[in-house]
Amino acid sequence: MILPIVAYGDPVLRKKAKDIPEDYPKLDELVNSMWDTMYNAYGVGLAAPQVGLPLRMFVIDPAPFAEDEELDEAEKEQLKNLRRVFINPKIIEEEGEEWAFNEGCLSIPEIREDVFRKPDIVIEYQDAEFNTYKEEYTGLAARVIQHEYDHIEGILFTDKLSSLKKRIIKSKLSQISKGKIKIDYKMRFPEMKKGR
Q1: What residues form the catalytic site here (predicted)?
Q2: Which of 18, 135, 140, 182 is the most buried (most CB within 10 A)?
Q3: Is 91 labelled a binding residue?
Q4: CA 111 remoteness from chain centre
């Protein structure tokens, strides 16, 4: 089922999400709905707060980035095969020299900016059956995970911009929160109190 994506300005995007217990009702349905919602909006990642739930979960499928001709074959293969659900994740290491990449967000449509992040991470997480994993990611794969992880910490990519960039996009962010944008996927806007 396709869920409305929560727009910038909704308080749920600023909450630190809570762990998901193993007996969480209809978790499989929620995971499937998040996949449907992400693909419908042509996203590469979606966190539970973006569908209005302050839960520590996100899904990613960065396969579209594998088309980038500048990437080496190993990174392309990793991106193509990285369709994952992360439940109760915890980034335990972030290393390397920060690098910029132009990021966007389904909750903040029509805004893209360069964001600096470290290239290498180690993350612990559970899958939908609550099996635990500890894995290392690098490059674009790490970045997609870091972006979604920020969502469950109540952080948006716009928080990482310079004060000048924040001032430049302030009116655009206001328009998004009021629903005064054209998008081709279902959203819920905080100042309108209903989806469209």
Answers
A1: 148
A2: 140
A3: no
A4: 14
